[in-house]
């Protein structure tokens, strides 16, 4: 999806602001929740006068927002840090600021390994990005812009105030000056942060803190501003969306929030990610259905990470559901939500997973036939209880199990794609397709159906005339390539026809008109083959 900058607070800051003249860029790793943090952090810099330019050959500030969820994510963060430091050494980057979850999970080790990084910020300290930037840039705030007091840092946390990692507290929800990095017609809205689930394989509660719901009025206000900016698809995210409201009202109340957003009727699509297999009731399920065009739809797309199906392993994972409850919930989704699309995440190789337990998972996937699923090998994360559990699975066994289950799920998803051929579906056009030479293709767009969440699911390639990113148009699915779909608009005015084909069709139409009048169509003059473009010999 192509990126565009939308500063929620309005116009660019005047030249009198303290970071005027500074150029900044950002790289956001990990999940959409991290992307929203990057957008808020970037917005703070822009509010102080900095200019965002992702294509600048030289930048004053490069912000790298990291993920610390898995070892592989932290390894990716290190690759980005090393590459950014090479660019810093070459003069392309003046100040490198590393933020995000990896600063909590591995920050001290990273700071020792990469002392050339100018500042390190945990998620709880990203609200201080403006003060850090001013400190590095040598600027001063105007008196009326006085910053709140900075956290007190221990000697171990700071080397000239470079390392800021406040112990986990409630994260501040800051969206007033958020600078969106998604396509203009799509936006994420983070409705909560932190997690109270304490799954034994996960360190998120240690990194992000306890679950905190964003207040109802703040969500509605942000949603209104996003709608005003042209957003057509709103994607609700959190560590766990179905738990929203528990800390505010004593019980989860996602259905109230969804009903209110739907009633406003400001979006075409509202997609909900990261639900949990608890807290689903009839009223909540009934909201997930397609409505008539022109009416907001809570999409029948259920993202519910299950991790496994074996009851004993689910108990070891502290998932708080068993296999029977899981199957009953999936059956309700299939029965009560027309054309529902189910996405899940599955872990193979969890400590104690026997061959029989693994085969139970394979059979479960074959039976449930999830339209979308991510398959992962268990990763023993430092600080997670599962890392020290007995009966760890050998890496080669985990790899074999992963490859087999991944292949099975891929076949199921491919079959789902083939089953769409011949159907007419609505497609949200996201970007123009890029040719092999790197040029934007005017007549081909990349889009998504209801079944496709941004950035994580397959896409639809649409060929037609006058296609515009941000359009939501009905298309006929004409083919499938792997899990991706090939489509053409159902509107004949948008069907792409080459110039030659259009010329031939016009000539046929003209000839038929002559014949209908009993006239002989005029003969077309042959083009001369001369040095102005023909292939004949010069005379």
Can you characterise this structure?
The protein has 539 residues and is α/β, with parallel strands linked by helices. It folds into three domains: 6-147 and 155-164, Rossmann fold (3-Layer(aba) Sandwich); 182-418, pyruvate-formate lyase- activating enzyme; 421-522, Beta Barrel (OB fold (Dihydrolipoamide Acetyltransferase, E2P)). Helices cover 32% and strands 20% of the residues. Strands 3-2-4-5-6-7 form a six-stranded parallel beta sheet, with helices on both faces. It has a five-stranded mixed barrel with strand order 18-19-20-22-21. Strands 9-12-13-14 form a four-stranded parallel beta sheet. Strand 18 and strand 19 form a beta hairpin. The longest helix has 24 residues, at 395-418. The model is unreliable at 7-13, 141-161 and 527-539 (pLDDT under 50).
Which range does the strand content fall in?
15-25%
In CATH, what is the class of the largest domain? Alpha Beta
The CATH architecture classification of the largest domain is: Alpha-Beta Horseshoe
Count of strand segments: 22
- CATH homologous superfamily assignment of the largest domain: tm_1862 like domain
* Euclidean distance between termini CA atoms: 55 Å
Q: What strand line-up does the widest sheet have?
A: 3-2-4-5-6-7
Structural class: alpha/beta
Mean pLDDT: 88
Report the radius of gyration as a whole number of Å.
27 Å
Uncertain residue segments: 7-13, 141-161, 527-539
- Report the biggest beta sheet as strand number plus sense, adding barrel if it closes: 6 strands, parallel
Helix content: 25-40%
What is the helix tally?
A: 14
CATH topology of the largest domain: pyruvate-formate lyase- activating enzyme
Domains (count): 3
Shape: globular
């Amino acid at each position: 999806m192509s990126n565009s900058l939308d500063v929620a607070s309005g116009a660019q800051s005047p030249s009198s602001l303290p970071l005027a003249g500074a150029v900044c860029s950002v790289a956001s790793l990990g999940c959409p929740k991290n992307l929203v943090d990057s957008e808020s952090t970037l917005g703070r810099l822009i509010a102080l006068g900095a200019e965002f330019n992702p294509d600048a050959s030289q930048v004053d500030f490069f912000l790298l927002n990291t993920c610390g969820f898995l070892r592989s994510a932290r390894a990716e963060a290190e690759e980005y840090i090393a590459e950014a430091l090479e660019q810093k050494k070459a003069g392309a980057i003046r100040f490198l600021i590393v933020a995000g979850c990896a600063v909590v999970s591995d920050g001290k080790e990273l700071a020792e390994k990469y002392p050339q990084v100018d500042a390190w910020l945990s998620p709880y300290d990203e609200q201080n990005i403006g003060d850090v930037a001013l400190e590095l840039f040598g600027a001063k705030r105007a008196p009326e812009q006085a910053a709140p007091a900075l956290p007190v840092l221990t000697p171990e946390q700071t080397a000239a105030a470079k390392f800021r990692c406040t112990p986990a507290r409630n994260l501040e929800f800051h969206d007033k000056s958020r600078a969106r990095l998604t396509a203009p017609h799509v936006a994420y809205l983070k409705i909560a942060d932190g997690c109270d689930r304490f799954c034994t394989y996960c360190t998120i509660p240690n990194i992000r803190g306890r679950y905190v719901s964003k207040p109802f009025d703040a969500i509605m206000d942000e949603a209104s501003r996003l709608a005003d900016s042209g957003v057509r698809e709103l994607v609700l995210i959190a560590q766990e969306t179905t738990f929203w409201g528990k800390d505010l009202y004593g019980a989860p109340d996602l259905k109230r929030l969804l009903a209110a957003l739907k009633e406003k009727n400001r979006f075409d699509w509202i997609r909900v990610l990261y639900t949990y297999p608890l807290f689903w009731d009839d009223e909540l399920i009934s909201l997930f259905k397609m409505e008539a065009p022109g009416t907001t739809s809570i999409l029948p797309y259920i993202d519910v990470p299950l991790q496994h199906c074996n009851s004993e392993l689910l108990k070891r994972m502290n998932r708080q559901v068993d296999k029977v409850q899981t199957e009953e919930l999936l059956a309700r989704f299939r029965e009560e939500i027309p054309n529902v699309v189910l996405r899940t995440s599955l872990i193979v190789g969890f400590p104690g997973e026997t061959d029989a337990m693994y085969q139970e998972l394979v059979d479960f996937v074959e039976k449930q036939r999830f339209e979308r699923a991510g398959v992962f090998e268990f990763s023993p994360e430092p600080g997670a209880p599962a890392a020290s559990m007995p009966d760890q699975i050998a890496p080669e066994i985990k790899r074999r199990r992963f490859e087999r289950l991944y292949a099975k799920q891929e076949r199921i998803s491919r079959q789902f794609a083939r089953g769409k051929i011949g159907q007419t579906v609505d497609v949200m056009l996201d970007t123009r397709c890029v040719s092999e030479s790197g040029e934007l293709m005017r007549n081909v767009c990349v889009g998504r159906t209801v079944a496709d969440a941004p950035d994580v699911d397959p896409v639809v390639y649409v060929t037609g005339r006058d296609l515009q990113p941000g359009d939501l148009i009905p298309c006929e699915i004409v083919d499938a390539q792997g899990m991706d779909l090939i489509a053409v608009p159902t509107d004949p005015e948008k069907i792409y026809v080459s110039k030659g084909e259009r010329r031939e069709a016009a000539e046929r139409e003209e000839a038929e008109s002559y014949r209908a009048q009993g006239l002989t169509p005029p003969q077309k003059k042959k083009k001369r083959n001369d040095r102005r473009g023909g292939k004949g010999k010069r005379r």
